[in-house]
Each structure stands twice: as C-alpha cells, then as structure tokens.
Amino acid sequence: MRSEPRASISLKVAAFVGLVFLHAPLALIVLYAFTTEEKSFQFPPPGYTTRWFSAAWFDRPDIWPPLWLSLKVALLATLIALVLGTLAAAALWRARFFGKDSISLLFILPIALPGIITGIALRSAFDIMNVPFSTWTIVLGHATFCIVVVYNNALARFRRLSGNMIEASMDLGADGFQTFRHVVLPQIGSALLAGGMLAFALSFDEVIVTTFTAGQQSTLPIWMLNELIRPRQRPVTNVVAIIVIAVTFLPILAAYYLTREGEHTGGSGK
Amino acid sequence: MSIAVNFQNVSRHFGQVRAVDGVTLDIEEGEFFAMLGPSGSGKTTCLRLIAGFDQPSTGHIRIFGEIADGLPPYRRNVNTVFQDYALFPHMTVGANVAYGLMIKGMPRAEREQKAREALSLVKLNGFEQRRPSQLSGGQRQRVALARALVNKPRVLLLDEPLGALDLKLREQMQEELRSLHHDLGITFVFVTHDQGEALSMADRVAIFNEGRIVQIGTPSEVYERPHTRFVASFVGSSNVLTPDFAAANGGPRAWTSLRPEKIDVLLPGEIPKTGQAIVSGQVSSLQYQGAVVRVAVNVAGTRLVATVPTGAKTIPDGGTVSLAWDRSSAVVMEPE
C-alpha cells in the first residue's frame, strides 16, 4: 500500500506565508491596542498599557452614537433580509417557470456587484425619488446584500426538504400557516439563524455602500476611517477594531457551526 | 354500497401533456381499489387529485357524493401514505403520528393515547420516543400508515407504499395491509406499478395507460380476460397472437391473448386432448424459474411462450414439440 502523498516543503512554506500575510495585519491591530505610543505606529511598541480600553469606555462619548447606529442598522437590515430572503427562497424552491435561473441570478447579483456600483445606484435612486438620507436609506442599502446571504442559506436548506413533507402536513389537516409553523420553520430555523448572523456581520462592518447612502450620519466603520485620518488617541481606534472583530467574528463562527453538517453558507466571502 | 370516490370525465393537463385524459371512475365504499399502470400513465396524478394536491383541468371529482372542486387537502376527509413516507424528521415518531390530531386541537394526553393506539395497530408499540431517522424502511412505512390512520379517514390513499421495501418485507406488508383493510373497513386506494401486488391485494383493479383507464375489473377478470394488447402484456405475461395467426388456428380473425400457463407442451408421440388447437415448432430457449420452466417455441416465425411445471417432463432444447391449448383459453381482444 502506498502512504498518503505528503505536501512538499515548498508548498508548506507557501501555505505558511499565505496565512501570515492574511493574519499578521490582524495581529498588529490587536498589538497596537496596547501600545503606549499614541501618535505613530513604531515597531516594536515602546511599552504596553491597557489604558486605551478605559479611555475608549470613559473619555470618548463620540464612539457611542456610531456604535448604536451600526447595531441598529445591522439589526434592521437583518430583519428585512430574513423576511424577504426566506420568501424569495421559498418561491424559487417550489416554482418551476421560464427564466427561473435568471431571477435567481438577480437575487444573488447585489453581492457579486462591487459595493461602489450598488452605492452609486442606490444614491441616484434615492436622489431621483427625493428620498432624504437617513438611517433608513442605510438600512435599505445594507438589506440589498443581506438578503443574498439569507436567500442562499434558506435555499440550500429548502432543497434538502422533501416537498412531500409540506403536502403530508396539509394532508393531515394543516393549512399553509400551520404547515409553515410546525413543519417548515423548525427545519429551516438553523439555516435562517446562520444566514441572519452572516447578514448582521456583513452589515455591521460595511463601508462602501454606507458612504453613498448615509448622509450626515456615520456608522462605526466610517467613524473608524475618520479617526485614522485625524490622529488623536490612535490606539482607541484599535480598541474599537477589536470590538468590531469580536462582534462580527462570533456570529460568523456560530453560522459556520450551525450549517456545518449541511451545505455551504453562501456569500460568506464578501 | 355507496360510492366513496367518483371521477366524472376528469382530465389534468400539464401544458401539452395530458397526464390524465378523460377518466370516469367509481370507487365503492370499503373497497380495496388498485390503480395499476407503468410510470407516467396518470395513476399517481389521479391519486393526487383525490388528495387535493392537484386540481382537475376539466371534469369533477366527488368524495362521498360531495363535489371536491377547489377543496384544499386539509378540508378533505382522506389521508395519504406517501411513497417516500414524508415523515417529519424533527419530530419523534409519537409526534409524527399525533400531528393530525394536534392540528385539530385535541388535548395532549388524549392525542398521545390515540397515537399509541395507532402505533400498536401497525405493531410499533413503544416506538413513540424514537426519531424517524432511527427507524428502518419498513418501520417508517408503518409510522406513515399510523400517521394517516389515526385521523380516521374515510378513504386511505397509498402511493406506491411498498416500492422501497425489499421483497420479503413487501410480501409481509401486503398481508398486513389486507388485514388492516379488513379490520378497519375503510376504502383503500392503492397506486402501484407492480401487477403482482395489485392482483394479490385489490378487490378491483383499474389499469392505466397514457392517462386513460384501459380496463377495470376484479383481478381475475383483468388477468383472465384482458381487453387490449396493452393489458394482456402488462398484467402478467401473455402471448399476443396476431389476427392472422389466431384465424389460422381456429379462432376469429382478431388480436388474441393466450396465457403461457394455458398452453400444454407435447413431446413427439403425445396426443392432445380433443378439441384443442395445436401447432408445432422448435424450442428456442428454456428458462428455469424454480416452480416452472419457461419454454419459448418458434412456430413458423411466431414466438410462443409456455410454462411447464418443473420436473413434469424433459423438454429438449432445440427439439421439435407441439403446443396445444383449449380454444376457450384464447381470449379475443379489442382491435385498439
């Protein structure tokens, strides 16, 4: 018997370099949240302190409005996405009609399009319709791509559901709503949760579409961008970055575990 | 006897395809009725029309005299056993069986009691807490049966319910379904493509081909007196004689069905019974099938098949034999 072919040394090195390239910047973000130097990033940091965490918490009230706005937008966009994405997936799962594939593509397109196109398109659309920029315009912008992840997750799960199960439920006396509640929802629930978490994470750190649809408000990522341009207590930005990593990474991790035994979680790569 | 299900000139078209094409049919109350046909013959569509999953394009269906047009499945007093069972994987077996009662709003203790009774009816006592994924195919089949029967339907629809089971289990379930039908006294409508299953279980059989019913009758009627060439060859196997061949051998000039077991194979020197038709030819193949041997004989270009009980006589492969049959065994069919 032949043993498993082993990766060559050069492949291993290449893989390692790739991983370092991907994750070293993240490590630096975390590292500089603890530096004592506040104006510039010198390496290695001259000393270590945790005072930026307390500074972020106590001395910087300007962090809170963007943080709340981001959370609010992400929650609303996720809710809209959950309802519309599930409905769209359900419709395209059961129906068979001419042009189904094209419609399916149209649903996925917002996540494939560059954010800047979506942003410009939405901004012109809001302008034409005289919609004033507000929290809601940001929410709508985010919903366009949040729907995609929910749709993809829900559709993948729907496809594993036997169509007969819905007929069986109706055969046993349940109407459409009861069938959804007792048979469909329990089976697609974890996929919806995963899709919702991904959508939340996507929305929470979105910058490009937000810049075009935000008007005067700034979400947390935009606040961070501004902070980098005007340096003042620079490590505070890093502290906030760590919080953002935590807030977005945990849902993605959870989504991964929720859908692991099934099909892939589409759209997680944006 | 009242009529459980009545089809009045029912058609169901899918675009250009006529899945069901002008079916008129009465199923009597308490009857075990089989719909038999090859795949795509419209039998399953007919079942779905009764269940309410689909609506006729034209024509009307009555269930116990009541017109069912546009009635959704949850307003019909019929229940279905699905081919793939369609059990709910996120519920226990007990919850699956009690589902219909839960939807009706029956209190928990009462519906759990009824579910237990239904499970014991299908010999699955003590399975309430298991999940469908922990059951074998045969057990799932029984759960699906219990889940339908617990609602006390007046008509039970079965869509190829034994298709996924192995032979041994299938024979056992056939017997159990028969005795369930006998004990419950409700109408069973059974869809199958397996002619043996239909003949052995049903009180009456409707044979479907290309969306139409080509013959309807008791199993012995459709087996002994097939009306068309399709029925003769689909139900059991049969020798279909051309009009010319039939006329040359003492029958009328018409398509004729002759069952292999009705033909005697005579070795040289054996004498046919009086009044039998007789032809001779060369044995072209012998097929041992356990209880019988299938003998294919080439009679001047026409292939006739006869079955002989194993061990009755030794037939030489390639040798010349005579075939004899009673004229009454040759069944004249419709011209089509």
What's the SSE blueprint?
The complex is a heterodimer of chains A (270) and B (336).
Chain A: H1 9-32, H2 51-59, H3 64-94, H4 100-112, H5 115-128, H6 135-160, H7 163-171, H8 176-204, H9 208-213, H10 220-229, H11 234-259
Helix pairs in contact in A: 2-11, 3-6, 3-8, 3-10, 4-6, 6-8, 7-8, 8-11
Chain B: E1 3-14, E2 17-28, E3 32-36, H1 43-51, E4 58-63, E5 66-67, E6 78-81, H2 93-104, H3 108-121, H4 137-149, E7 155-159, H5 167-184, E8 187-192, H6 195-201, E9 204-209, E10 212-217, H7 219-224, H8 229-234, E11 239-241, H9 243-248, E12 256-258, E13 264-266, E14 277-288, E15 292-299, E16 302-309, E17 320-325, E18 331-332
Parallel strand pairs in B: 3-8, 3-9, 6-7, 7-8
Antiparallel strand pairs in B: 1-2, 1-4, 4-5, 9-10, 11-12, 12-18, 13-17, 14-15, 14-17, 15-16
Q: Summarize the amount of helix of chain A as a percent range.
A: over 70%
Poorly predicted residue ranges of chain B? none
Mean pLDDT score of chain B: 92
Overall CATH architecture of the largest domain in chain B: 3-Layer(aba) Sandwich
Order of helices and strands of chain B: EEEHEEEHHHEHEHEEHHEHEEEEEEE
Give the termini separation of chain B: 33 Å
Beta fraction of chain A: under 5%
CATH-derived topology of the largest domain in chain B: Rossmann fold
Alpha-beta classification of chain B: alpha+beta
- Helix fraction of chain B? 25-40%
| SSE string of chain A, helices as H and strands as E | HHHHHHHHHHH
CATH fold annotation of the largest domain in chain A: MetI-like fold
> Mean pLDDT across all residues of chain A, rounded?
84
Give a short account of the largest sheet of chain B. 6 strands, mixed
pLDDT under 50 segments of chain A (min length 5)? 262-270
State the largest interface: A-B, 17 and 25 residues
**In angstroms, what separates the terminal alpha carbons of chain A?**
43 Å
